[in-house]
User: What shape does this take?
Amino acid sequence: MTLGGAAAAGVRLIAWCRNCRRRVEPDPAELASRYGAETTALEWKERLVCSGCGGREVDMVVTGERRS
Assistant: This one.
C-alpha cells in the first residue's frame, strides 16, 4: 500500500518502537505530502527512527479501520 492509497482509503498507520515502546499514529495524508504519494508504507517504515530513544527497531501496522 502506498501512502497516497492509505490517505485515500482513510486507514490508520500505527508505528511503535520495540526498544522503548513509544507509539505514534501519523496522518497518512501528511506522510504522502511529505514523502510522496507513491512511497509505499514499507519504504516509509524503513526510514523511521524513534523520537523517544533514537532506535531504529520500529514495527508498523496498517489497520482497516478508518481514521475518525
Summary: The radius of gyration is 11 Å. Residues 2 and 38 are 5 Å apart (CA to CA). The mean pLDDT is 93. The first strand starts at residue 11 and ends at 17.
